[in-house]
Amino acid sequence: MKQNYKKYEEISAYLDDELSSEQNERLKKEIQSDDELKKVHSEIGKIKELVSGIKPLPEDNYFEHRVMENLKDEKESPFSFNTIKKPVIAFSLLTLFFMVFWKYNPDFFDKFISEQQTNIIDFYTENLQPLIFAGTLTNEDIFNFAMNKELPLNKENNQLLSISKDEYGNEVFEIKYAGNASGVLNLESFVRSLNLNEKQKNQVDSILESYTDEISTQVLVNDKNIVAVNPNILNYRNAIKSDLISFAANTNSAAVKQILPANFEVEQLRNFSKSIISAGSKDENIYCFIAPDTIFFNKIEINKDELKREMEKFKEEMKTHQKEIKVLKRMKFDVKVFPPDSILKHGLKIWTDSNQFRIVIPEILIPDVELPNFDSIDSELNKALLQLKDLNISIKMDSLFNKKRMSIKIHSDSLKNFDFKFDPDSIRGLNFNFNEKDFNVKNLDSLGHVFKQFFTDSSRIIFPKDFNFELDEFKKEMEYLRKEMEQLRRELKNKNKDNETKNLPIEI
Amino acid sequence: MDELQSQSIFMLDDDFSLIKKFNEGNEFAFKTLVHRHKEKVRNIIYLVLGNTDQIDDISQNVFISVYKNLKFFRFESLFTTWLHRITVNKCRDHMRRVKIKNFFTSFSTDEIDIPADEREHNFDIHELVRKAVAELPEKLKIPLVLKDFEGFSYQEIAEALNTEVGTVKSRIFRAREGLRKILEPYKEELL
User: Fold this and answer.
1) Please, are residues B168 and B81 in contact by the beta-carbon 8 Å criterion?
2) Contact residues for A220 (Cβ-Cβ < 8 A; gap 6+)
3) Which residues of chain B have pLDDT under 70?
4) Over the stretch A65-104, which tens digit does the pLDDT of each residue have?
5) Which stretches does DSSP call E strand in A138-278?
6) How many Å lie between the alpha carbon of A8 and the closest alpha carbon of chain B?
7) Which residues of A touch B180 (CB under 8 A)?
8) Do A455 and A420 meet the contact criterion of CB atoms below 8 Å apart?
9) Closest-CA residue in chain B for A53?
10) Nearest residue of A to residue B144 by CA position?
C-alpha cells in the first residue's frame, strides 16, 4: 500500500512536470503497462484539470486605486492601529487579568469597599472617650439633662446635646451651641421647692451621681470633634427623671401630689430605672456618630469593666492632679468598632439651620424598655415640675452714684419672660420688656448671652470720676440702646412672622 | 558571484526595478506593482478562504503590508514568492480569527451541500470544485492552489510556505486525493 502511495505521489508529480526526464520516462512506461496506474493517472489528471479550470474572480479595475486611497488615509489618520496597538493590548491584558481575578475572587471588591468603610469609621472613632474624660459632668448637668433635656458636651464652647421630639413624635438629637432652657428648673430650685434638708439633699446627689458613669458612656467624644451618642440615653433620661420624681414623692408627697397630674401613679416609676439599666447593659451598642462632615450609625463595644476601673482611677486622679487634667483627657480607652453593616443603610432624617442640627433617631435603634406610659404624661409632668421652681431673681446694685440708687430687677412667672427695669432717677422711663414671643428667634441664645454678661458682670460697671458727665453719656448710650432694641424687636417680629410661615426644616 | 546572481534575478524579474523605484520615492511604481499582482493575490485568497465577502479587505491588507515592508525586501528571491508568502500568512490569520469566532458560535458546514434538484438542473462544476477545494485542510489546499491555479513550481511553493519540496509534493498529492474523495458522489458528472 505504502509502495502504491509513493507511486501515486510520483504520478501526481509527473502530471505537474516536476520529475526528472529519467523519472518521467520510467513512469510513463509503467503507466502504459499497468491498468491501475493508468486509472490513477487519469483520475489525478482530471482533478488537476478541474482545479486549474476553476473560474477566477472577475477583474477588479479599481483595486489599486482603493489600495492607494487606503494608504493615503492611513498616513493622514493620526490614530492608526499601530499607534494605539500598545495601549489596546495593555488594556486588553488588564481586562483579561481582571476577568480572571474576578472569577476567582468574586468578593474582592465587596471586601475592599467594606475595609475602606471600616477604615473611615476607624478614623472617625479613633480615641473615643466617655464624656466624663473630656469634661467633668456635675450633678447639676445630670439634673438639667433629666429635666431640661440638655447635656453639656463642651462647656468651653457652650456646646450642648439636646433631646426633643419632632412634629411626628420622633425622638430627635440636637447638637447646638448654648441653650435657653438651662434655667427652666435647676437643681437648686428643686431642692429649695421641696424644702430638702442636708441629708435629703445628699440623697438627691447620690441619685444623680449613680447615673454619671452611665450617662458618660452613652456619649463618647474625641479630639476630632466627633460626638457618638447612644440612643439608649433617651431611656436613661427618663430613668433619672423617674427616680427624681419618686424621690420627691417620698420626701414631700403632699407637695408633689398637688403638682402631679391627678391620674398619675408614682408607684409605676419605682421599677422603671431598673429596667432601663438592664436594657442598657448589653455589651454591643449602636451609637449615632455625629462628625462635622458626616453622620452615621455604627455598632461599638465598650469594655465596661475596664471603663469602670478607668473612671475610678480618673476620678481619683482628678482630685490630686487638677492641673494636669489636659494630660488626663488624652487617656486612651479600649473601644472596639464593628465593621459597617446594614445599620448604615437606614435612612437618616437630618435638619439643619444656622446654629444647630437635628437628627431623628430611627425607632429601631432605641433599646426597647417597658415604659409606664411615660410619654403621654410627659408634657403634663413638665408643666407640673415647672411649678416647683420659685424663681425670683432680684439684683440690687447699691451704687455710689451720688447716693442715688439704681436697681435692676429680673423677675418672672415663667423664665421665658424677662422684665428688666432700670429704676434710677437718672434713667427714668427706660424699660425693657421682652416676652416669650419676642425671644422666639433663632439667635436668642447669643442675645441672651449678651444680656447675661451685661447685667451679671459687675466688673462692667465703671465708676468714672466725673459722674454727671458720664451719667449723661450713659443716658445717651442707653437711649440709643433702647432705640436699637426697639428696632431689633421690630425686625425680630418680622423675622418671626417669616419663620412662622417658613417653619419647615431643611431635610437632607 | 553574488552580484552576478543578483543581476540575473534582476533581469528576470521586472518587479525588482519597480521596487527600487518605489524605495526611491516613486509611489506610482507601487501602484504598478499592485496592478500587476492584484488578481493573483485576490484569487489565492478566494480559493483558500472560499467565497467570502472579505476577499477585498484581506487583499487590501496584503498590499498595505507589502507597502510598509517593501523597504526591507532583500532581492534574494522573486517578489512573487515574497508576495505569496504574505498572502498565505494573511489567509492563515483570517482562518485563525474565524476559528476563534466559530469556537464561540455554531459552526456552519454547508459548504458542499448542494440540493438534489440543483444537482440535476443547474449544475455548476466550477463552483462545486471550488467548494470542494475550500473543504480541504489549510495545509493541503494552499500548495494545491499555488500549483494548479497559479502555476507555481514545487520549489517556489516550498519557498513561499517555507517548507521542503518533498513536503510540497506529498501535500499536493494528498490534496488531490482528498478532492477525489470529496467529489466521489459527483463522479459521473465530473470524472
Assistant:
1) no
2) A128, A129, A130, A131, A226, A227, A228, A229, A287, A335
3) 1-13, 104-123, 190-191
4) 898 888 888 777 666 666 677 888 899 999 999 899 988 8
5) 150-154, 159-165, 171-177, 219-221, 227-229
6) 8
7) 43-44, 47
8) yes
9) B126
10) A51
Residue A166, CA distances (Å) to A150, A358, A359, A505 in order: 16, 9, 10, 10
0.80 surpassed by pTM: no
What does the block give as the cell for A117?
A: 468603610
From B23's Cα to the closest Cα of chain A, the distance in A is 16
Nearest in space to A184 (alpha carbons), one of A380, A376, A383? A383
| Cell, residue B112 | 458542499
Phi, psi of B150 (to 5 degrees): -100, -15
* Rounded Cα–Cα distance for residues A58 and A381 (Å): 105
Q: Which three cell numbers stand for residue B8?
A: 540575473
Which residue reads 470529496 in cell numbers? B182
Average of pLDDT values for A313-337?
56
Euclidean distance between CA atoms A126 and A129, whole angstroms: 9
Alpha helices in B13-163 (DSSP H): 15-23, 27-49, 55-69, 79-104, 116-120, 125-135, 138-144, 154-161
Among A13, A53, A67, beta carbon nearest to B169: A13
Lookup result for grid cell 439704681: A406
Identity of the residue in B129, B145, B180 whose CB atom sits nearest the CB atom of A43: B180
Q: Which three cell numbers stand for residue A312?
A: 475610678
Q: Which amino acid is at A5?
A: Y
C-alpha cell at A56: 477566477
Chains A and B form CB pairs within 8 A to the count of: 97
Which residues on chain A are in Cβ contact (under 8 Å) with B30?
A: 68
SS3 track for A428-490: CCCEEEECCCCCCCCCHHHHHHHHHHHHHCHHHCCCCCCHHHHHHHHHHHHHHHHHHHHHHHH
Q: How many CB atoms lie within 10 A of CB A376?
A: 11
Give the separation between CA B145 and CA B46, rounded to whole angstroms: 10
- Least CB-CB distance to B130: which of A13, A54, A64? A54
